[in-house]
Amino acid sequence: MPKSKVRKKSAYTPPPSTLQPGAARALAPSPRWYAPLMVGLMLIGLLWIVVYYVAGDDIAFMADLSAWNFAIGFGAMVAGLVMSMRWR
């Protein structure tokens, strides 16, 4: 039985890109105030929840907010976490 011919595959060439190589690395670093604000938001959110648990009944505006205190605390922490993903 005759042996079949082996077909050569052409080498893969990626499509031409409009971006220059290394363009992703050219992003500027974050400003100096970015990291302290990021950490501050996370700590403020944590402290808000801790203060609500410890003395929430004694503080008038926290007692009025009731369960919204969790939204405020976790919202501040999530904002800090989102900022940490954009930090350079």
UniProtKB/TrEMBL annotation:
Q: Does the keyword Membrane apply?
A: yes
Biological process GO terms, please? Answer: cell division
Residues of the region (Disordered) are: 1-24
Domain of life, per lineage: Bacteria
Compartments (UniProt record): Cell membrane
Give the bilayer topology.
Multi-pass membrane protein
- Chief place where the protein resides: membrane
What are the record's GO terms for cellular component? plasma membrane
Name the UniProt key words of this record, in alphabetical order: Cell cycle, Cell division, Cell membrane, Membrane, Transmembrane, Transmembrane helix
Q: What transmembrane ranges does the database entry give?
A: 33-55, 67-85
Function of the protein: Involved in cell division.
Query: What's the protein called, per UniProt?
Result: Cell division protein CrgA
- Species of origin reads Trujillonella endophytica
Q: What gene name is given for the protein in this entry?
A: crgA
